[in-house]
Structure formats: C-alpha cells, structure tokens
Amino acid sequence: MSDLRTSPLHERHENLGASFTPFGPWTMPLKYGNELDEHRAVRSTAGLFDLSHMGEIRVTGPQAGEFLDHALISTLSSIPVGKAKYSMIVNEEGGILDDLISYRLADDEYLVVPNAGNTDVVWEAFQARAEGFDVELADESLDTALIAVQGPRAEQIIADLVAGEDETVVRGMKYYSAAPLNVAGFDVLLARTGYTGEDGYELYLPNAGAGELWDALLNAGAAYDLLPAGLAARDSLRLEAGMPLYGQELGTDITPVEAGMARAFAGKEADFVGRAALDGREPESAIVGLKGLGRRAAREGAEVFREDEKVGVVTSGQPSPVLGHPIALARLHPEFSEPGMSLEVDIRGKRHPVETVALPFYRRSDS
C-alpha cells in the first residue's frame, strides 16, 4: 500500500483503530470496529465517513453549462444554482466511463465529483471535450477533503455546529442541494447528498481544515451515538439502497440504457459524446434486485438461472444487516427484470432460490 495515496484524515483513522483497504489509487478505512455496528448506526443514528478519495473538478466560464451538456449525458445547463444532478459520462460507443454528481455553484461555475478510481479518466475526457468551449477546468481532487455525515440524526449534528440563521439553511436544504456555509468555524460547501439511502450531508473543504472539522463532527455526534464508518458499511448501505457501484454494476461494458438512465437524455436537445450510440438503443440487460429466499448470500460473479437457462450474473450481493435476508444486484436479460419472478443463483455449485424485487431494497421511513 506504500504507493497509494492517503487521505488528509489518515492519522485520525489510525488513532481510531481503523483497518485499511486499497480503493482505486487510495488507501482508505475499511472499518473501525464492527462493520455491522457502523451500518446500523447510519440507519438508526448517524455515521461519519471520510470520502476524501473522491474527485473534484471545477468547471468555470461563460459556457460551463454548455460544455457539461456536451460532456455528460444529462442537461446540466438548466439546473438552478444551488442544485445538483446525478449523471454519467460515456465514451463514443456509449459505454459508461463513470457516474458522477455535478453541483451548480453559480451561473458560470460547477463542481463535478467523479468516483475515486475514475477521476483521471474523467479529467482526461473533460480536457479533450473542452475544445471549442469558453470554459476553464481545474482538478482540485488532491487539495480537497470530503467528509459525510449520514443518518437520521445528521441534520441535528450539522445544525449544532452552525451559528445563528445558518441553522435555518441547514434544516431547510432540500435533497440534492448545496450551499456555502460555515460549519464549526470552517468554510465548506455543504451538500445534502449521499450514498447510503439515508438523509445526510457532505462537506467539501480544503485539506488543511479537514482534521479539525472531523474532530468537531465526531465530538458533536457523540451525543447522538454517531460512529465513524468505513468502506465496508458504505458498501452494504448503498446495496440496501439499490445504488450501483462503478466497477460492479457499472462499467464500459454497459450503457446508461442498460443502467436505467435513458431518461437522462430523453428529449435532450444538445448533442453529447456517445449520443449516436445511445439514441434508439434497446437494452441488452437490466440491473435487477434479487431477494434471497434462503440463508446463503450470492456474491459477485454468481450465475443466475431460470430453470436450465442462464439469464444473468450477480454484480453485488451480501446479507442485509437491516432486512435480515440476503440481497443482490444482478445484470439480467430484460425479460427477467419484473418484480416477483422466481429464479435461482448458483452458489458454489448449488442452486439457491431468489426472487426479483423492486429497488431499493430498503427505504427510510420518512422518504
């Protein structure tokens, strides 16, 4: 791991007893104690995540919106200032290079957040696609820390760390919105987004203040039983929430059509890279939720069958800590994507029954 990048919070994680794992070009906390406890804390109270491995690319200039309309499959030029949009970037053949979130910070300014392992790919694609646009690009990934507070008590924890009328901003912020705010004495971009299926916030700031802000969030959260949480809990949480992970559900071998994102460019007026390959495309597969009817969990790579016909493969799977039964995401032939279909998965040479279900597997009570 010596050649891997470390987060500006790495020493904090070591002091908390974290175990680490490689993730893209980074080494990041896998867990601090028991990953099931961390998962359940996010579902019941709150969890604190270090996401500083994520990328941050700032896009500015008179044609910033038009450039992103060209570079991504969605229409970014029409989203209001202070709002965010989930989208994808594809190659000329329509294969997904990454899924990412873009925040509109001003009329001529956006912050685009790629996945950790794809930041360099997105950066190179942006540079190539910027030709002819009046736009400036800045890769701020290595200078920016990202901390997330996720869970039912996240709003109260952040509200405890802001002053005066800023509490109204925190409590009134809508999902997929963002605003500059001072939290615990640090100027951050506060976004009400996340990857857990719970309410929560993400805080972007320069590396220099990350340690002190982490400490402040950890201390404020102690009154609400907040736990620091690692990548293991983040993965099980996103799976319960039915959210795809690049490298498992998503990749260059699948297009947004198969990923259920055709709506992102339906009716889009602007041309974009990959459009010719996507317009009119019929899906060759679908990402489908599977509920295990036994106790064994299907893992990535397990084959899915309908009687003697192979109909797809599991991309992610494990026992659900909250639901009490195995769950999985799978790429299946589209005709097997409707909820309520009886299928089988091959787990170490033995077939186990599963049922297709609507996503997400888990939905929080107030959503």
UniProtKB/TrEMBL annotation:
It comes from the Bacteria. Residues 9-265 form the GCVT N-terminal domain. It comes from Corynebacterium pollutisoli. Residues 287-362 form the Aminomethyltransferase C-terminal domain. The glycine cleavage system catalyzes the degradation of glycine. This is Aminomethyltransferase. Belongs to the GcvT family. Keywords: Aminotransferase, Methyltransferase, Transferase. InterPro entries: GcvT, GcvT/YgfZ/DmdA, GcvT/YgfZ_C, GcvT_bac, GcvT_C, GCVT_N, TrmE/GcvT-like. GO terms for biological process: glycine decarboxylation via glycine cleavage system; methylation. It holds the Pfam family GCV_T. Substrate binds at residue 202. Its EC number is 2.1.2.10. The glycine cleavage system is composed of four proteins: P, T, L and H. It catalyses: N(6)-[(R)-S(8)-aminomethyldihydrolipoyl]-L-lysyl-[protein] + (6S)-5,6,7,8-tetrahydrofolate = N(6)-[(R)-dihydrolipoyl]-L-lysyl-[protein] + (6R)-5,10-methylene-5,6,7,8-tetrahydrofolate + NH4(+). The lineage of its organism: Bacteria, Bacillati, Actinomycetota, Actinomycetes, Mycobacteriales.
